[in-house]
Amino acid sequence: MEAVNIGLLGFGTVGTGVVRIVENHQDDLRSQVGLPIRIAKVLVRDLDKPRGVSVAEDKLTDDPYAVIDDPSIHVIIEVMGGVARTKQYLLDALARGKHVVTANKDLMALHGPELMEQARRYKCDIMYEASVAGGIPIIRTLIDGFSSDRITKIMGIVNGTTNYILSKMTEEGASYLDVLGEAKQLGYAESDPTSDVEGMDAARKMTILSTLGFRTEVELADVSTRGISSVTLEDIRYAKRLGYALKLLGIAERQDEHISITVEPTMVKHTHPLASVGGVFNAVYVYGEAVGETMFYGPGAGELPTATSVVADLVAVVKNLRLGVNGLHSSTVYKPKKLKSDEQISNKYFLLLHVEDRAGVLSQITQIFADHEVSLESVLQQPNPSNPKAEIIIITHDANLAAMKRVLAAFESLDVIQTVQSVYRVEG
Amino acid sequence: MEAVNIGLLGFGTVGTGVVRIVENHQDDLRSQVGLPIRIAKVLVRDLDKPRGVSVAEDKLTDDPYAVIDDPSIHVIIEVMGGVARTKQYLLDALARGKHVVTANKDLMALHGPELMEQARRYKCDIMYEASVAGGIPIIRTLIDGFSSDRITKIMGIVNGTTNYILSKMTEEGASYLDVLGEAKQLGYAESDPTSDVEGMDAARKMTILSTLGFRTEVELADVSTRGISSVTLEDIRYAKRLGYALKLLGIAERQDEHISITVEPTMVKHTHPLASVGGVFNAVYVYGEAVGETMFYGPGAGELPTATSVVADLVAVVKNLRLGVNGLHSSTVYKPKKLKSDEQISNKYFLLLHVEDRAGVLSQITQIFADHEVSLESVLQQPNPSNPKAEIIIITHDANLAAMKRVLAAFESLDVIQTVQSVYRVEG
């Protein structure tokens, strides 16, 4: 073996970054793995499109199997995105004994177990550090760094688009739609931003993180997901006034081997390390029984940060190749999955209610909380300047989710409540 | 092989934590490495001392070679501390084919290369994640997570004692000596705190981090070190007023393959992620050419956090053992060392001068900066309420260290300057 030959599937932003890093850091990489690394073939959609980095024309192809079937290729790097077709390419590549590095969170969240099973069968590595939180090496941290500990909580700001939007709304008092428009112009949001703003992107990443953190096979359907499209400036102002930042958090928790995973806008105490993570940055907070509080912060996306993680995986694959131990690493998923019921999920909640401004309203509302055994940490009633009605802001003590759902159901038949304007989980 | 047998050298705080984690997480550990892990022998100083965890009496010994020479032992975990004697124990253990996990920063900073060479010779692993920043897996992050990138800056709050002292001085306006006294009572500072407060502890950790980050063999003598014992409340108040936090930072930088490493009290812009790391927490900020800004935050010390890192190393060693690849990992240090000269080191500086309160003083002082081509970002002159003299606060633009040293030398012969009260590096 004179060189490690790479087949690159996809030549967009991250693919370009991978070529750039492999070229610019060739000496460093060779010092670490003992062999030169060569980009042997690149699958592109359009052979004639001009590109930011130069790759010899005869290495470009628009036929995926020209890459997958090439016997000289040792490692496939998948940065093309997509799910069904891409999965088949990677299953086929693994069946041909090629190791795989992928940045594809959708694929790993939906079909990770199947791909890993295929990798095991053919004694191949499959690595996916870049699929979550771009440049932050959080996946190897969960697998190796905390191998000795029992992780009980993972809280992540794992979607840069929504963190950018909420940060801008908080800092500048601009509306959701205005900031979203700006984010599209800056390239921080897709032209169809649904997957980001409705929390689906974050849910996929939390599926991957909680599978590793809890060592059990979490599925996307296990993640209760709510996005930020209904967050108002009023909510953000209240959060700020009460000493919280409103963030789209993925939260995975474990208690007595029962787990729950949610993605939802959450009020985070301003002293919590996640509260000050602004802009498009990502951060993952991990709580372990033994280690306590830790946090990992960095860029969540972008050409070079994401490519850094892809090439770090490549280095790991090549080191394994040289040692002859690809596909031999022990499984990180070995626990049966037990999901928490709503009765077992316990959180603090913030509620903003618009109510009739007359005597006895507060007493009727607080009675409902009492009836369902939800106790309250703080209650504030005040006139609403822009509305003839009054506002009531409530923060509960820890309450189980089932009881909270019963409270919200009871509110529906309470005439004095005009609207339940907002309900947010509260952390820290 | 039916079980992995561990020889534990030292049974203090961290040793107790290791036994606790190995016992409490036995099922998890076994699921990951496929074998039970047994504490086979423990070296103690006093056989009769009562302990927080139970280890069968016949496993305790006060003879180090009863552990090191025991043929049934596969891995030595060194948590006894000390340098010269401990180094000999580990060299001997490696020579007998035993893998080593150590939490000993002094040993690794001073003799890391020699120990690693011995490990290579005998095809053994030596791992030392717990030696820096307790529960934060920063060492494997530098080796594996950023293997593909070129790290240009590492800034660390890597000493909990000094961070606690500076945080308390900042929050409560208490004096250095008062907070130090309190820290001793709380067990956050040793009875002889010299190594912590004078920056030596942080310098050892920066030696280890910069060796890994820059892939070159940094020695303790390469680290320019200054502690916090001369930091005054006045300094902290000025820092706060100007929008900075005063932190003891280890800073390792690389530019054009030339490096510099310092440990010194530094003014960090309050928007920088390191500025809000309070109390005994540690954090390491890493800047990579490709990845950009990242930060890793967590507990820097303590029984269980440190033991978490020790046992995570143990898991890695045992996985290697099962794969038959101990001691075969490629070297992470392969670059010749080139240190920056003072002319190549460039920073912003904060200066607090006590001066005569008369006409022309400021002009004389600013002339000296001009003479040495140091340009100024901001200058503030004001009367000092507690002193008949005036105060001048200066923040420079980026200036090279040699020029700054010439400025400070010129100040000595300037009659109008009463004292150069403080000089701090400014970051962020």
From TrEMBL, chains A, B:
Binding-site positions, NADP(+)? L9, G10, F11, G12, T13, V14, G15, T16
Q: Does the keyword Ligase apply?
A: no
From the UniProt record, which GO molecular function terms apply?
A: homoserine dehydrogenase activity; metal ion binding; NADP binding
Which is an annotated Pfam family here? Homoserine_dh
CDD domains assigned to the protein according to its UniProt record, in alphabetical order: ACT_HSDH-Hom (cd04881)
Residue ranges of the ACT domain? 350-425
User: Any idea of its EC number?
Assistant: 1.1.1.3
Any one Gene Ontology biological process term?
methionine biosynthetic process
Q: Which residues bind NADPH?
A: K105
Q: Which cofactor does it need?
A: a metal cation
Q: Which reaction does it catalyse?
A: L-homoserine + NADP(+) = L-aspartate 4-semialdehyde + NADPH + H(+)
Positions of L-homoserine binding: E190
Per UniProt, the keywords (alphabetical) are:
Amino-acid biosynthesis, Metal-binding, Methionine biosynthesis, NAD, NADP, Oxidoreductase, Sodium, Threonine biosynthesis
Q: Where is the active site?
A: K205
The reply on keyword Transport is: no
Pathway of action: Amino-acid biosynthesis; L-threonine biosynthesis; L-threonine from L-aspartate: step 3/5; Amino-acid biosynthesis; L-methionine biosynthesis via de novo pathway; L-homoserine from L-aspartate: step 3/3
Q: Which family does it belong to?
A: Belongs to the homoserine dehydrogenase family.
This protein is called what? Homoserine dehydrogenase
For this protein's source organism, the top of the classification is: Bacteria, Bacillati, Bacillota, Bacilli, Bacillales
